[in-house]
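User: Sequence recovery, please. Input:
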C-alpha cells in the first residue's frame, strides 16, 4: 500500500507542480525515490521532528500548495497531535496526514509502533476526515481524494505486500460512501484496511453454509456513510464488523450506535482489537490472533452465537 501511495503521489505531482511531501526520517521513504529524484525541491525530509512536519505542511498549504505529511502512523498522529489539532483542524487547512503501518502492521516493534486507537483519536477532531483503504487499488483512489480535499484528512495505510481485493468491486470508490465488494442477502461484513482480506475469507466460509454474504469496504471512517450503514443493517439478518482498531471509538462502536438509533433488528457482531496493550511478540497475524482477530476464532463465535 505504501508503494501504491508513492506511485500515485508521483503521478499527482507530475500534474500539479504545487504538490509537496514532508517526511519525518522514515526509512520507507525509499519508496518515494522517484518523487525525490524528479522533484527534489518538493521532497522534504525534516528528520525526527514530527511537530515541525505538520507545521511546515500547514504553511505550505496556506501558500496554496498541496501538502502531504508522511511517516509511521503512531508518529504521524500522536507525537504532533497538538499541531494537527491547532495548525490543521482549527484553521481547516487542507493537509493530508499519511500514517503508514496503521493498526499493528509494525508488529515486532511493539506498542510504541502500534496505532490501535488512531481512528478514534483523529475522528474526534473537528474538520478532520479519515480514510483507510483496504488494498493498493483503493490506496491509489484515496490518495487522489486526499489531493483534492478542502480540509485536513488522515490517510491510514497498511505497510507492504497487501493483495488486490477490489479489482472486481461492484461499486466505485467514492469519498464518504461505503462500497459493496460482494453482495448477498443473508450476512453482511463491514471492514476496512488490510484486515479486509480476512473479512473476505470469512465471507467465503460463511457462504459454504448456504448463506449469501455481502462484503462492504467502509474506507471512509469520517465522514461516515451512516445512511449506507443503516441500509445494510436493515437489508441483512446478520451483520459483522471486523476491524484492526480498538473497540473504543472505531467502526464497531459507531455501527452499534447507528443500529441503536435506527432500531435495527439484525444480529450484530463486532470484532476489534482489545482495549488493551498486549505484550505479544510476533507477526501482524500473531498480534491479531492474540486479540481474537483470526478467522477460526471469529467463525467459532459466530457459530456459537
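Assistant: Recovered sequence (305 residues):
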Amino acid at each position: 500500500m505504501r508503494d501504491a501511495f508513492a506511485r500515485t503521489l508521483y503521478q499527482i505531482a507530475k500534474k500539479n507542480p504545487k504538490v509537496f511531501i514532508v517526511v519525518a526520517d522514515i526509512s520507507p521513504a525509499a519508496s518515494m525515490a522517484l518523487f525525490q529524484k524528479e522533484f527534489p525541491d518538493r521532497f522534504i525530509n525534516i528528520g525526527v521532528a514530527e511537530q515541525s512536519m505538520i507545521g511546515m505542511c500547514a504553511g505550505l498549504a496556506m501558500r496554496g500548495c498541496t501538502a502531504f505529511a508522511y511517516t509511521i502512523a503512531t508518529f504521524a498522529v500522536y507525537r504532533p497531535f497538538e499541531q494537527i489539532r491547532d495548525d490543521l483542524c482549527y484553521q481547516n487547512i487542507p493537509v493530508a496526514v499519511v500514517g503508514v503501518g496503521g493498526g499493528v502492521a509494525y508488529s515486532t516493534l511493539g506498542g510504541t509502533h502500534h496505532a490501535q486507537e488512531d481512528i478514534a483519536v483523529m475522528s474526534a477532531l473537528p474538520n478532520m476526515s479519515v480514510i483507510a483503504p483496504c488494498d493498493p487499488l483503493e490506496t491509489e483512489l484515496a490518495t487522489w481524494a486526499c489531493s483534492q480535499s478542502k480540509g485536513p484528512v488522515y490517510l491510514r495505510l497498511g505497510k507492504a505486500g497487501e493483495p488486490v481485493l477490489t479489482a472486481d468491486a461492484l461499486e466505485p470508490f467514492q469519498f464518504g460512501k461505503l462500497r459493496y465488494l460482494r453482495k448477498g442477502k443473508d450476512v453482511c461484513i463491514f471492514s476496512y484496511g488490510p484486515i479486509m482480506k480476512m473479512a473476505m475469507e470469512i465471507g467465503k466460509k460463511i457462504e459454504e453454509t448456504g448463506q449469501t454474504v455481502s462484503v462492504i469496504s467502509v474506507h471512509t471512517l469520517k465522514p461516515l456513510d451512516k445512511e449506507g450503514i443503516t441500509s445494510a443493517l436493515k437489508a441483512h439478518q446478520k451483520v459483522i464488523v471486523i476491524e484492526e482498531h480498538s473497540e473504543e471509538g472505531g467502526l464497531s462502536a459507531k455501527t452499534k450506535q447507528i443500529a441503536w438509533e435506527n432500531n435495527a433488528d439484525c444480529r450484530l457482531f463486532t470484532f476489534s482489537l482489545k482495549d488493551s496493550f498486549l505484550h505479544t511478540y510476533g507477526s501482524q497475524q500473531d498480534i491479531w490472533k492474540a486479540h481474537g482477530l483470526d478467522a477460526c476464532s471469529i467463525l467459532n463465535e459466530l457459530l456459537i452465537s
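The first strand starts at residue 19 and ends at 23.
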